[in-house]
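Tokens in:
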């Protein structure tokens, strides 16, 4: 079958090969024919080494498709069923799951260290234990989440990561209050979803911050009340909050420099929500006095900060009701053979989300 493979960490292009095989099918597993997958910035971060991932590997973790094989012992799923891929399935029995913090379950990360593809030359890993830049994947049954028939594969794929992460950051983690002021730094697919979440929560002012003009324009269409380049953020803070700072600031870039800017842009007693996935060696510096004196809440948000299955259902309900716009998040479409074109669209910022149709 065909799959896009990164041979070594640090390479900036993928090679689409037709000699890749999905492996590991057996008890407790399902085989999924991937129909659509989104390109998430985390895929690019794994390719560059910002996020830890063994190579060679097939990127992709935001996907949807249909089940073509069911392993022994799997219940509640059937061949032909339409599903989205959950890259971080909950085991249901660990301490985090028992506390209701299923997004913190570590069981899914075990899969990331087990090759789920192979080529004649050896094993190939799947990013985050999935690897959706492939025609088929074999995953634990818990990764396959059924979707209703009226949800297109491309919409379901977005819900599998970016939409759930952004919406959840605003709704589950930060719990944005009605009438509040919000700034979102980084307006790709996840940042735009955070903007939509803040709008749903009733925020009065939502300032989108991004260096790319087309993304700023898009943010206004999705609910931002103002959109500025990073060098204009200080002015927006002064005009909108009288210099006090925003009630909520979302950092959706994953870098200490922007996190520090976000902290300084948050009002005393306000909330900084860290959504971007950054590097292990990139440290955010805060002094102990400001931590005590400013009483700003720093809230990391992992995969939307809540039970992902309920978050999926909520996103579908909001999409059906026309309360959130998911179709317009997909600004570009390419076939699997055009995956490197999609990577360029991501790196230059011209795309909110590129859908790879497989």
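Residues out:
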């Amino acid at each position: 079958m065909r799959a896009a493979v990164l041979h070594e960490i640090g390479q900036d292009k993928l090679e689409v090969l037709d000699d890749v095989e999905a492996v590991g099918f057996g008890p407790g597993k399902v085989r999924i024919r991937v129909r659509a997958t989104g390109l998430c910035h985390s895929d690019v971060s794994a390719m560059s080494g910002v996020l830890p991932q063994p190579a060679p590997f097939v990127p992709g973790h935001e996907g949807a498709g249909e089940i073509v094989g069911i392993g022994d012992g799997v219940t509640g799923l059937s061949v032909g069923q339409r599903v989205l891929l959950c890259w971080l399935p909950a085991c249901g029995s660990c301490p985090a799951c028992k506390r209701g913090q299923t997004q913190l379950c570590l069981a899914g990360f075990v899969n990331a260290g087990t090759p789920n593809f192979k080529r004649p030359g050896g094993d190939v890993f799947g990013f985050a234990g999935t690897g959706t830049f492939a025609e088929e994947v074999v995953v634990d049954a818990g990764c396959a989440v059924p979707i209703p028939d009226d949800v297109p594969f491309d919409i379901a794929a977005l819900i599998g990561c970016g939409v759930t992460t952004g919406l959840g950051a605003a709704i589950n983690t930060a719990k944005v209050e009605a009438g509040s002021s919000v700034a979102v730094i980084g307006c790709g697919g996840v940042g735009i979803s955070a903007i939509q979440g803040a709008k749903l929560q009733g925020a009065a002012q939502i300032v989108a911050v991004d260096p790319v003009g087309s993304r700023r324009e898009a943010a206004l269409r999705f609910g931002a009340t103002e959109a500025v380049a990073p060098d204009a953020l200080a002015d927006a803070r002064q005009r909108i909050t009288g210099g006090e700072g925003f009630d909520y600031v979302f950092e959706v870039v994953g870098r200490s420099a922007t996190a520090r800017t976000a902290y300084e842009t948050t009002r005393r007693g306000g909330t900084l929500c860290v959504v971007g996935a950054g590097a292990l060696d990139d440290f955010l510096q805060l002094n102990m006095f400001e931590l005590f004196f400013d009483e700003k809440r720093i809230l990391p948000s992992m995969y939307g900060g809540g039970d992902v299955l309920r978050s999926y259902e909520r996103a579908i309900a909001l999409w059906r009701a026309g309360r959130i716009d998911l179709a317009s998040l997909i600004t570009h479409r390419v076939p699997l053979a055009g995956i490197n074109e999609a990577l360029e669209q991501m790196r230059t910022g011209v795309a909110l989300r590129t859908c790879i149709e497989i």
